[in-house]
Amino acid sequence: MLSTDERVDRLEVVFAQFMERTEEALADIRASTAEIRASNLRTDALLLEMQRQAEKDREQAEKARAEMLCQAEIDRRQAEADREEMRRQLEQDRQRAEEDRKRAEQDRKDFNKRLAELSDSMGTLVEDMVAPNARRIAGQIFPADPVVRLMQRLRQVHPTDPGRMIEIDLLAAGRRHLMVVEAKRRLNPEKIREYVERVAEIPEFLPEYAGYQLFPVVASVTIDPSVIMFLNRQRVYGVAMGDETMELVNLGQF
Predict the structure, then answer these.
(1) CATH number assigned to the domain covering 124-248
(2) Do residues 209 and 173 lie in contact, with contact meaning Cβ atoms separated by under 8 Å?
């Protein structure tokens, strides 16, 4: 049986071992605690960094959004300005097109007027070319009946119907024969038929020539051979410019 001193010694040894192990455990705990604290600090630092990065990202995103909204507003205003400019340009183009149309319409009217004036002047020119030769041409058509009356650009109202009037470019009358001349810038069968119908009405407008033999004559600067053939079928004389002066082109052909 152990003595008291031996038991005390053993207890002291056990206690010393216990304290040693306790110190080791405490050291481990302190080390673990330090590690945990360091880990927590690192975690806090990481979280803080993440928070700062998130805030930075949020600020950048907000800035980018604001810039995008600003650019979108600029683009909207530019698009509106472009649309307004396009509308203004379209309106200007429409106005110019309308002005061009009106100008073209006026030019067309002026051209038609000048053409009509030219046509009238050509017809008058042909009349003036035929007039000095009227007696000679009439003498070729009815040689036995000299011209006793010569009229140019005659307008005659119907003696019983004042609403009707006939225009005659040139008229040469003998005592029994009457030459009626129509001057044209250009001849065609339709105009010739109309002229023949008007010539048939002359006795109504000029009763003094009711018993006269009528000789219709058409005059132009030139007369196409095909038209001359039509004149022959209609028994109408044609007068055109010859080598020196106005000449009958179908004398003796019908």
Answers:
(1) 3.40.1350.10
(2) yes
